[in-house]
Design brief:
It is built from 4 helices and 12 strands. The protein is an alpha+beta fold. It has 2 domains: 119 residues, no CATH class; 99 residues, no CATH class. A 4-stranded antiparallel sheet has the order 1-5-3-2. Strand 2 and strand 3 form a beta hairpin. Helix 1 packs across helix 2.
Length: 256
């Protein structure tokens, strides 16, 4: 069985990561302002509603990871990216009629990529690296999965140790588990169907201390929940992970 690489949506987008300049046809904001934030605070706010992309006190690392849709473990860049912070005020262009939410998200990521390439002279590339992670496998007693009832599309809702998904593939599930464990997870189940999945797990797993007045979360760990509810298991392995490597980026953006 060939493993599914843990990758991001942006890795599949038709854009040359090593290009420092946007092409004329590349999606771009109508206007964009970038300012250094010297408030000294740690909180970050990002809002992409009402036709604008508003960012307050985001590190350059935050911005690059958001633009290329990569997690901490699949990103490599200079340490100083976490120490400089910026505010962005940008205006989205009018949308084409009939655009889907997925198309909107992909287009907006491209806009941010192009902005970083233009203003910070960002260049980067994707590279597959072998990292410590988990393989998602079928348990010894076989899977306990419910075939999808919806005809098309995928819907995933995840909050506070609860997952409710319709039309999920095993790759979708592996990506969700990767977010929970904050490490790479590769689908090696060999299952290629679409499934309706409900899962509950404890968010207290591995957390020392905590509020002694708050009742303990008695739900199972994500490892046990996968095994008992879905008939799947996680096994520690070296996983091929598509990683974003920053080749060059400037600390100070060009003028607005």
């Amino acid at each position: 069985m060939r493993p599914t690489l843990v990758t991001s949506v942006c890795a599949l987008l038709p854009i040359c990561l090593s290009s420092a300049q946007s092409t004329p046809s590349a999606p771009a904001y109508e206007v964009a302002s970038i300012k250094l934030n010297t408030s000294g605070g740690n909180g970050t706010r990002m809002n992409g509603t009402k036709g604008e992309y508003m960012v307050t006190n985001a590190t350059l690392k935050n911005l690059i990871q958001n633009a290329y849709d990569v997690r901490e473990y699949s990103f490599s860049g200079p340490d100083w990216l976490s120490s400089v912070r910026f505010d962005i005020n940008a205006k989205f262009p009018p949308e084409e009629p009939g655009i889907t939410p997925q198309q909107r998200q992909a287009t907006r990521r491209l806009m941010l990529q192009n902005l970083l390439q233009e203003r910070f002279k960002l260049t980067a590339h994707h590279e597959t690296r072998m990292l410590s992670g988990y393989a998602l496998l079928v348990g010894k007693k076989g899977p306990k999965l419910k075939d999808c009832e919806r005809k098309d599309g995928t819907s995933v809702s995840q909050n506070n140790g609860n997952l409710d998904g319709q039309g999920m593939s095993m790759e979708n599930l592996a990506n969700v588990v990767a977010g929970i464990l904050r490490g790479p997870v590769a689908d090696m189940t060999g299952l290629d169907g679409k499934y309706d999945i409900k899962l509950e797990w404890s968010q207290d797993e591995g957390k020392p201390g905590g509020d002694t007045e708050k009742p303990a979360d008695v739900r199972p760990s994500i490892f046990t929940a996968l095994q008992d509810t879905l008939g799947l298991r996680l096994e520690t392995r070296k996983i091929p992970v598509e990683t974003l490597i920053v080749d060059h980026v400037e600390r100070t953006p060009t003028e607005n």
